[in-house]
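Title: Prediction job returns without error message
Component: structure pipeline
Severity: low
Priority: P3
Assignee: unassigned

Description:
Job completed but the reporter wants confirmation the result is attached to the right record. Sequence as submitted:
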Amino acid sequence: MNVQFSLTASTTTGGQGKPETMPSGAGSVASADQASGIRDMKDMALKERQGTSVSVGQEQLIRTIERAVKSLQGPQTTLEISIHEKTHDIMVKVLNKDTGELIREVPREKTLDLVANMMELAGLLIDEKI
């Protein structure tokens, strides 16, 4: 019997996880108040559509911070939990969601196969009376 199910986890940053940018102070008070609400590229695009000008320095800062946050988050992962057929132990696999590449496997399937072979040799897996 082989039972499998998958869980998908994604990381999101809340309001505290997003960096805030401060205006350079060179603009007027009204434009500084409008520009101070920019937290990410989506906010910046929204402000530009509303007619608020964003300095090149602020735009570069926002892009740099977003790249840093994205690199710290790592790949999106999928958790796959299954039961080994011969030993009936639980196996957990962490897979990269984009590529399907195996990141980590606990315990390793090869190890469970080795344990199953050892149990078979010891007669623990087959309970037959002759």
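Comment from assignee: result matches the submitted record. The chain has a mean pLDDT of 74.
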